């Protein structure tokens, strides 16, 4: 599923790596809810024991690195 990001006119897709506003870390998109403009991301690269998953507003995404 893809989603449009209004500010940058980019699209994000499941599996893309993105950066968030006010955060220098890299995140991987796990899921997208276009209807509610939400997505689920995890830190990238993953750590050995797994990475926590965060639900965020797609308005927090500033750039897709793919």
Description:
The protein is mostly beta strands. The chain has a single domain (2-64), classed as SH3 type barrels, CATH 2.30.30. Helices cover 0% and strands 59% of the residues. The protein has no helices and seven strands. The protein has strands at 2-5, 10-13, 17-20, 23-33, 38-44, 53-57, 61-64. The strands form two sheets. A five-stranded antiparallel β-sheet has the order 6-5-4-3-7, with no helix packed on it. Strands 1-2 form a two-stranded antiparallel ribbon.
Q: Care to give the gist of this entry?
A:
The protein has about 70 residues and is mainly β. It is built from no helices and 7 strands. The protein has a single domain, classed as SH3 type barrels.
How are the secondary structure elements laid out?
Layout (H helix, E strand, L loop, with lengths): L1 E4 L4 E4 L3 E4 L2 E11 L4 E7 L8 E5 L3 E4 L2
Antiparallel strand pairs: 1-2, 3-4, 3-7, 4-5, 5-6
Under the CATH scheme, which class? Mainly Beta
Q: How much β-strand is present in the residues?
A: over 45%
State the secondary-structure class.
mainly beta
Q: If you average the pLDDT, what whole number results? A: 86
Strand order of the largest sheet: 6-5-4-3-7
Q: Which fold name is given in CATH as the topology?
A: SH3 type barrels
Total DSSP helices: 0
Main pleated-sheet profile:
5 strands, antiparallel
Helix content: under 10%
Domains, number: 1
N to C succession of SSEs: EEEEEEE
Low-pLDDT segments: 4-9
What is the gyration radius calculated from CA atoms? 11 Å
């Amino acid at each position: 599923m893809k989603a449009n990001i209004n500010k940058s006119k980019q699209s994000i897709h499941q599996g893309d790596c993105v950066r968030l506003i006010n955060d220098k870390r890299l995140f991987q998109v796990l899921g997208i809810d276009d209807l509610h403009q939400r997505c689920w991301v995890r830190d990238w690269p993953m750590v050995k024991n797994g990475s926590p998953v965060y639900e965020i507003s797609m308005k927090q995404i500033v750039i897709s690195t793919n």
